[in-house]
Amino acid sequence: MKQAELLERLRQAVSPEEWAALEKNSSLPVSPFNRKVLLEMRDASAPDGEIPVERAAGLYETLQAFYAECMAEQTAGQKYVTLACFYLTFVAGRPMHPIEQLDIKATETGDGIVYECPEKSTLKKTVCDYCVCKRMSNYEITKRQMARAFAQYDQEKMAQKFHLDGDKDYLYIRCLNRTYQIRRTDGTVTWEENGIVREAGFNETMTFYDLLCNAKDGCSLSGEFTAIGNLVNAANNPGSGGSLTARQTRLFDHRETELSRACEQLGGVPCGKGDVAYRLPLFDFMPVILQFWNSDDEFPASLQVLWDKNTTDFMHFETVWYALGHLLDRLQELLT
Questions:
Q1: pTM, entire model
Q2: How many CA atoms are closer than 13 Å to the CA of 73, on its beta-carbon side?
Q3: Which among 198, 223, 284, 298 is placed 20 to 30 Å from 204, CA to CA?
Q4: Where does the chain have alpha helices with state H?
Q5: What domains, with CATH codes, occur in the chain?
Q6: How many CB atoms lie within 10 A of CB 140?
Q7: Is the dihedral of CA 302, 303, 309, 312 positive or negative?
Q8: What pLDDT is attached to residue 242?
Q9: Which residues of the chain have pLDDT under 50?
């Protein structure tokens, strides 16, 4: 079935009297959201695409089962729900629920808008199975939960503790030579490049939240650096990060000129021992030291990041791994 054919059939299912009632927002049994969708459907341009008939039939059957269970006494309103769901799913290509209501994430890509829903069920033969939304990742769900928690903390205390710039809408924090803005109302973290605002990733976002919300009062750096496995409170978390750094170690091997340039783009200055060694501003107030040795006939390539001994006064030990992941991601982006 053509999308244009479906659109026309959906429109014909609404009588002139019903269109007039929808326009006047009268007493038809239709929600404000579905009323808006139906009026959009009336005026929409006909797209040129195919609709899998079996998918359309499946959605219809699934909606009928939903009505029998949840809307058995509201038969008059079922028609409008069906029309709105079919239009959104097969013509408009949008979620069947209000985006704001379910906190659905919409990301523009080269192939169109990708929708991610934190409530999407993975069960078959449910309405969710037909929705255009993808299931939001657990990483994104966690990030959003932490963003909401961030908004409840004393943001002026954060700004004073770490000497952050801010205005009525945002706090600003610099990380690896990039300025991020944290929206005060909901904790959303973004950064701007070439006039395009981008949402920050999981690793840096979680690092910011933990640092700003949970750093100890009076935290200060020792000026002494150590491997990640030697940090205070790390007794039950042994390791040097070898498994996390293995991919980048291979990527960096015998590319010291490029790696040095990448470190300098992150605001680094030469420091310490290694074929490549730089002191990098993880934050303006918290440096780390990167040391890299190329492979040779006797030894494999080696990558180590050193941290101030008091790092866990600023963030939980687990968060140090997020910070390390973000640092390695930034370097990899600059080398590829």
A1: 0.79
A2: 0
A3: 223
A4: 3-12, 16-24, 32-43, 53-70, 75-86, 138-150, 155-162, 202-214, 242-252, 256-265, 317-335
A5: 3-134 (no CATH), 141-214 (no CATH), 225-335 (3.30.310)
A6: 16
A7: negative
A8: 59
A9: 234-235, 238
